[in-house]
Amino acid sequence: MGIKDSQMNIRNRILGRRVLLLSAAAAFAATTATAESTKIEYVSYGLDSEVARELWGEDYLDQAAIAPNSLPSVEVGTFEVDGETVRVTMIGSASVCGINTCPVRVFRGSERVAEFIACNNTDSHFVNASRSLFAACDDIFETGLAAPER
Prior knowledge:
Blueprint: H1 3-33, E1 38-39, E2 42-45, H2 50-65, E3 73-81, E4 84-92, E5 101-108, E6 111-119, E7 126-127, E8 133-136, E9 139-142
Antiparallel strand pairs: 1-7, 2-3, 3-4, 4-5, 5-6, 7-8, 8-9
């Protein structure tokens, strides 16, 4: 494969990813327009809590704890999918977050099914009706929870 072929292959993969994300955004927007999305309601935990250790592990929490002049925390929202508890968690600390973003994880039971960096404005955090998409500010992420068969 020549350089030109390789560049074309990369362009095609990037274009395919953009189409996938645009499709996801359109699907989420359609769900939101019909009021079938659900706002994630978070509960705040300290970094020294058992919940924080379970969801983020000591290494991540140690990094989060070194933030000067901040009150680091772990936010946890829960909902049910097929009778199983799903937890969405965001760690908030100046030492692990960007200016407007923080790490987010999604757990189904005890299994981590997704991890991404999202807007830290929790008022903008929603999941669609099938729970397969997570919205934060202007971004949409796959939750790792399969959409139900139609």
